[in-house]
Amino acid sequence: MTSPQPAPDHDTLTPRQAGERAAAVLDEIRTAVVGKAEPLALVMLGILAGGHVLIEDLPGLGKTLLARSFATTLGLDFRRIQFTPDLLPSDVTGAPFYDQRTADMVFRPGPVFTHLLLADEINRTPPKTQAALLEAMAESQVSIDGSTRSLPKPFVVVATANPIEYEGTYTLPEAQLDRFLLRVRMGYLEASEEAGMLRARVDRVAPEAVLRTLSGPGEVLAMRAAVERVEVDDDLLEYVVALVRATRAHPHIQVGASPRGGLALVQLARARAVLDLRDYVTPEDVKSVAVPALAHRVTLKPELWVRQIDGDDVMREIVQSVRAPQTLPRTPIAS
Amino acid sequence: MGRERTAGGRRRHSTIGATQAALTVLVVGGVALGALLLHPDTGLLAKGRGPLGGNPVLVVGLALLSLLGGLGLREKYREQVGAARELNPVEQRLVDGVSRVLLGAPLVVPLLVLVLHHFGSSGSSHGSGHESLPLPSPRLDPVPTLPPAQHSGHAGDSTHFGLTRILPGLGIALLVVVVVIAGLHLWRHLARPPAPEAPAKYATLDDEQERLAQAVNIGRRALLDGTDARAAVIACYAAMEESLAASGVTRRASDSPRELLERAVAGGLPTEAAAAALTALFREARYSTHPMDGSHRGRAAAALAEIADGLRSRTSGPEAVTGTS
């Protein structure tokens, strides 16, 4: 699946260059993952913005393929953890073991020590093991036996969760959900896309498409640095704050988005600007990522469960009701 | 100017038309009521009974009906005339006079009907209202007549009696039809909005043209007078927003520039490429600190001019169609 490529000079990238390389990566991934243009772009935004991605959808929709395709194309180390009820925290983070030759305790790194970790069905493991991943996601480090070990850079967790099954699952607590920069829903393919996927499988003879590696860890970090160079107007920051505050005042929401939600929204909007080859954020960037960035951070009132209203619906309503920045700036901008 | 003149003429026509219709219904209705309830062939102040005067409940009911109808008519008339502003002195006097008549008539007509009606004890038994006439009674006739002659005379009497019953009935029906038609006509006239639909179309289109021209002028002034290219580009986009609003695509509070553009294109914006170019320029000018120069200003001006031309041609299209219809 992997074929080595020469690493380009990626010390510094402009937002435009970063956007072009990200677009090339996405094009390559689309040869393996049929359809799903927006979910693919959202996962890319999460990686560019330096966050972790929660993919919540039914089994068999290509979540694992998507994560593995990103790892391959971006040239990142890839590990996968299948979360089960008997999984222990040390199975995630690693544990010290006794080396008889040296008569020493030697730390054996767990699968979390990688660039891209696929945490498959994360809601199938108890909260104790989920919490072991929490520090890794938040701090990019793990603390074991009093010593702290940094994780490789970049470190990205792509977690999947099945939203339908309740038997034998442990719903992710709000604190852990808040650690994910965005939540992506894959959704089913269109009929034509599904037929195309079957045709592609029949034609290539192999189970999976072979992807080229177009990038590497250094370039991913350079792309992230380029995102930091994207400018955000004050009016847009106020717009982000208005969106976040609207989640706290909405009658259907019990607990609104945290300030971390606002930070996530800004970073994702900047990444969206990079993907559109711009070095400034527009209201469209903010609006396009508001639902994936905030919907999983709000807790709806219990009665809405009966009415089949979820966080995405409420967030869409909020996005359509909050006033966007006006045409004329309040303070003149000098040329 | 022409629009004002047209509107003034329409208003005057409306006022006078309402006055004429109100007076027509008042006169026809009042005369019909008097003819049907009072004695038709005696003096004005003589008590009597008309063709429908036999039933006192009917008389009182019709009097009440005329009272309520008159009051309703007056209310409707005042609403209609009140909507038409700036009446000239002649119209004002006419309106005042009719208002007073419409105030007095609903009270006076039923009052006169009740006061002048002859509520007799025997009236209810006949119902025809002709008991005051000395009709020949067979029991009082002392001279017997021959059977054939009697037979022929009885036939002539029955024919005469039939005609006297049919003709008033036809007259009543005719009067009712006239009153109903007049009432419907008046109701339609008074219920009609002050500004008819087709002339309103002209006025709206004129407004759109004015707003469009104004918006474009604002953008062009911003392009000409200031030295700040960024402000000029933003002003051009604001002018495009105004133009779109004038053509029916108004920006919502939560709309981003792209959403407004998409709605405008979905609404049939003829110059999509120019609008997209101006939107991109605006986003750069508004949300970035990129240096903006004369080339940005020039591109914005060209895009705005193209959009304005496209919208103007689209706006003038329906007007021409309406004007010919």
Automatic annotation (TrEMBL), chain A:
Residues 52-182 form the ATPase AAA-3 domain. The lineage of its organism: Bacteria, Bacillati, Actinomycetota, Actinomycetes, Kitasatosporales. This is MoxR family ATPase. InterPro entries: ATPase_AAA-3, CbbQ/NirQ/NorQ/GpvN, ChlI/MoxR_AAA_lid, P-loop_NTPase. The keyword RNA-binding does not apply. It comes from the Bacteria. One of its GO terms (molecular function) is ATP hydrolysis activity. CDD domains: AAA. Residues 245-318 form the ChlI/MoxR AAA lid domain. Keywords: ATP-binding, Nucleotide-binding. Transmembrane segments: none annotated. It comes from Streptomyces actinomycinicus. Pfam families: AAA_3, AAA_lid_2.
From TrEMBL, chain B:
Pfam families: DUF4129 (PF13559). It comes from the Bacteria. InterPro entries: TgpA-like_C (IPR025403). The chain crosses the membrane at residues 21-40, 52-73, 94-116, 166-187. Residues 236-304 form the Protein-glutamine gamma-glutamyltransferase-like C-terminal domain. Residues 122-141 are annotated as: Disordered. This is DUF4129 domain-containing protein.
